[in-house]
Amino acid sequence: MKNLDESGIDLTHKIYLFESPDGNLGICAKVQDKGKLEQMFVKMNSRPVKYREAYFAQVNDSWIAGYNDQSLLIMGPLPVTAQEVMKGTMAKYLQQDEENSVIASPMFEKLEGIDSPMAMVAQAKALPEQLVAPMTLGTPKGIDGSQVLIAAEMSIEKRCLTIEGRPFSFNQRINQEIEESFKVYRPITDAYLQSMSNEALLGMFVNVDGQKFLPILQQNKGLQVLLTGINQAIDMDNIIRSVNGDMCIIVPNYSDGAIQLSMAAHLAHTKWLADVPYWKQSVPQGAKLTDAGKNIYSYSDGKTNFCFGVSEDKQFFSGSSKQEALASIGRAKTPLPIQLQTQIKGQKMVMVIHFNDVRNETMKVFVDLLKPVFGPVNTMVYKLK
């Protein structure tokens, strides 16, 4: 429907997108003209049929739309075999009063408190793990994903979705720990903003004291997974402790079972270089750690290749090869657009994701879910508010 003004939907009120407890997506809007709404579905070759106290129509084979005089509810995607059951559930939703609906929930209250044309409140467990890991930095270890939520303002411009938010919890103890973790972040400078290629999948930027940041990183399961293979032979924890300043972690691509990683950071000291001889002797069987230049080392175990080192001005650099490692503190051939670099500078923590070459299935599903709401999205930027 090109002309939404003729759809029968009241566009002066908010439109809500949500995920139900059973994992289905839903859209809820206020009805302005039930007759026009019926005409819209008829033009889509789906004449509404009355069921209980509402009217229902099938949309694009796998979605069910239900409406009455007040509300429009669309849910899916659903196989044909599940659509009759969903109609019954939706009929109950449409009959609910405010006291028994989601409007009375703390989550909805939080959403209504966000002053933005587009806003989001979501449980961490409802988001793909690859995305939620940086978003939930500072969350206590072992906490169930349902206890941590993301509240955010959202905007989209030139196929770039910007999310400015922060994690929180309705549990006071958990929320206090999360709030305390925000004190670790300092304003990001332009030190590594040109180091991320505009073709790389993911980049995370922070400015931290590594000694304070490491405990936060260790509590984050998603980011720890990225470092697992490297940590078996190289004491990355000790390296991160030596960080004092800007730090960026870049994942060039992320397909199932194949992770590449580069990291660059300003260091307070390089005392850990004295431990490298010990690391060489203690690598796992079948692996090797060798010299690759002055204060540059290369690790390989047949599956993981990782090169790292320190520059004369105490910058840590790393990557899957020596070339990638040295490039991590240089300027990429095609760096992020200036407008995007400007967005990042001065923020506390920023994650940039490009969706152009996503091979991970979970990420593909997430990208597909964005399209109906925002249209084609090439880039997502998450900024800690």
Explain this structure to me?
The structure is a single chain. Helices cover about 30% and strands about 30% of the residues. With about 375 residues, the protein is an alpha+beta fold. The protein has a domain at about 5-105. The strands form 3 sheets. Strands 7-8-9-20-19-10-11-14-18-17-16-15 form a 12-stranded mixed beta sheet. A 6-stranded antiparallel beta sheet has the order 1-2-6-5-4-3, with helices on one face. It starts with 15 loop residues before the first strand and ends with a strand. The relative contact order is 0.11. The mean pLDDT is about 90.
Helix-strand layout with pairing:
Elements: E1 16-19, E2 25-30, H1 34-43, E3 49-51, E4 54-59, E5 63-67, E6 71-76, H2 80-95, H3 106-112, E7 118-123, H4 129-135, E8 149-157, E9 160-168, H5 172-181, E10 202-209, H6 210-218, H7 221-231, H8 236-241, E11 243-251, E12 254-255, E13 258-259, E14 262-267, H9 276-281, E15 288-293, E16 296-300, E17 305-310, E18 315-319, H10 322-327, H11 338-344, E19 349-354, H12 361-374, E20 379-384
